[in-house]
Design brief:
about 350 residues, 7 helices, 10-stranded mixed β-sheet, alpha/beta, single chain, 6-stranded mixed β-sheet, 2 domains, Purple Acid Phosphatase, chain A, domain 2
Length: about 350
C-alpha cells in the first residue's frame, strides 16, 4: 500500500470516529433529557401520524343549525355545540357512564336504573365515555333509552366499536332523537357553566378490538391543545382511556399492578391546565376520582379544583374492583360548581 493510500485510510478512519462520537453524544444527551422529565412526559414522542376524520373529527365549522333539547336551545356549527339559553347560576349536573359493552337484557336493565338516577339528580347533560356496544343494532338499543332524556347525551367511540358501525348507529338515532350527540365530530360542547372537549378512540393499537376501530395520535392531541384555550368555562376532557397516572389508587391501574394510561393525555392536561376529566376503560379502577397524578383520591361529594373520574363500567358482568369490592354495574354524577367539581358513584345492587 502506498503512502498516499495510507493517508486516505487514516483520514477516512478519523472521519468515521468523529461521526460515531457525535452520534453517541447526541444519544446520550437525548437520554439525559428524557431522564430529567417526569416519567409520564418522557414517554411522549412526536408523531406525524394522524387519525381518520371519520373517527376523530376535525375542528372545522359548517352550516349553523339550531336545536332545542327540552327547554334549552343550542347552536351546532361543525365541531362546536353552544348552549344559547343561559341561567343565573354557575352549576351544571352531569350524568356519567362508560363501558356498557352490549345490549344484553341485564345491561339494558342497568341503563334504565342509571337513567332513573340521572332523573332524580336532574342532570343537565350526559356523557358516555365509549365502549357503548359493538354492532349497529346493539349501539342503537343501548342509546335509545338515553335518548328519552330531555338533555344532550354526548357520546364518544371507545376501543371496542367499529367506526362505520358507531357512525351509522348514531346517524340512525339522530333521525328521531337529535339530542344524541356524536362527540367524534362535535369536539367542543360549549355549555352554560361547563365546556366539554372530546378526544375519541384510543391511543394504543394493541388494545383496539377491530381494524376498523378508532386510534388517535400525537397529532390529534396537539390539534386539541390549540383549541382548549378558547374555553370560557371550566373544562371537562372526555376520553375513553385515562391519562397515565401513578400508584395503585390511580384510575388507570390494572389488576395486574401496572398503570396503562396515555402519557400524551397527561402532558396535554398539564400543559393546558385542564381541571377535570372523564374516562373509563380500566374497569377495576372505576368508582373513584383522583388528582392528575392519581396518588390522591378525591372523596365523594367533596368539591375539588382538580378531579379526574373513572365512573366504572355500567356493564352487568361481575368485575373485581381494585378496592376489593365487586361491580355489577356503575355510573356517576359529576357536579360543576363554579371552578370546582364533586362526584358521587351509583352502584347497582344485586336483585334479591
Amino acid at each position: 500500500m502506498t503512502r498516499k493510500n495510507l493517508v486516505y485510510l487514516f483520514l477516512a478512519s478519523l472521519i468515521i470516529s468523529i461521526i460515531a462520537c457525535k452520534k453517541t453524544e447526541t444519544a446520550t444527551t437525548e437520554t439525559q433529557q428524557d431522564a430529567a422529565l417526569p416519567p409520564s412526559i418522557a414517554l411522549v414522542k412526536t408523531s406525524t401520524k394522524s387519525s381518520s376524520d371519520k373517527c376523530v373529527g376535525p375542528f372545522a365549522t359548517s352550516t349553523k343549525q339550531t336545536l332545542k333539547i327540552g327547554e334549552i336551545e343550542y347552536e351546532i356549527n361543525g365541531y362546536r355545540m353552544t348552549q344559547l339559553t343561559k341561567d343565573n347560576d354557575e352549576s351544571t349536573v352531569i350524568g356519567v357512564m362508560s363501558d356498557i359493552k352490549e345490549d344484553t337484557p341485564q345491561n339494558l336493565d342497568n341503563v334504565k336504573l342509571v337513567i332513573e338516577q340521572f332523573k332524580q339528580n336532574k342532570v343537565n347533560v350526559v356523557l358516555v365515555a365509549g365502549d357503548t356496544a359493538e354492532s349497529v343494532a346493539s349501539i342503537e338499543n343501548v342509546l335509545m333509552p338515553l335518548a328519552q332524556l330531555p338533555v344532550p347525551v354526548l357520546v364518544i367511540i371507545g376501543n371496542r366499536e367499529k367506526v362505520p358501525h358507531f357512525n351509522t348507529a348514531l346517524a340512525n338515532i339522530n333521525k328521531k332523537y337529535p339530542n344524541i350527540i356524536s362527540m367524534n365530530f362535535v369536539r367542543y360542547f360549549d355549555g352554560d357553566d361547563v365546556d366539554v372537549f372530546s378526544l375519541p378512540g384510543y391511543h394504543d393499537p394493541n388494545f383496539i378490538h377491530s381494524r376498523e376501530g378508532c386510534q388517535y395520535f400525537q397529532s390529534d392531541v396537539d390539534e386539541l391543545s390549540k383549541h382548549i384555550p378558547m374555553a370560557n368555562s371550566p373544562v371537562v376532557l372526555l376520553t375513553h382511556g385515562p391519562a397515565l397516572q401513578k400508584g395503585n389508587t390511580a384510575i388507570d391501574r390494572m389488576a395486574e399492578g401496572v398503570n396503562v394510561g396515555d402519557p400524551m393525555l397527561t402532558k396535554l392536561i398539564a400543559d393546558t391546565k385542564i381541571p377535570f376529566g372523564i374516562s373509563g376503560n380500566i374497569h377495576e379502577a372505576g368508582g373513584i376520582g383522583t388528582d392528575l397524578s392519581g396518588t390522591f383520591i378525591v372523596k365523594q361529594n367533596t368539591l375539588s379544583d382538580q378531579l379526574f373520574l373513572n365512573p366504572g363500567p355500567t356493564d352487568s358482568v361481575r368485575w373485581q374492583m381494585n378496592d376489593g369490592t365487586e361491580s355489577i354495574g356503575m355510573a356517576a354524577i359529576l357536579t360543576i360548581e363554579g371552578k370546582k367539581a364533586k362526584y358521587s358513584i351509583f352502584r347497582i345492587k344485586e336483585k334479591p
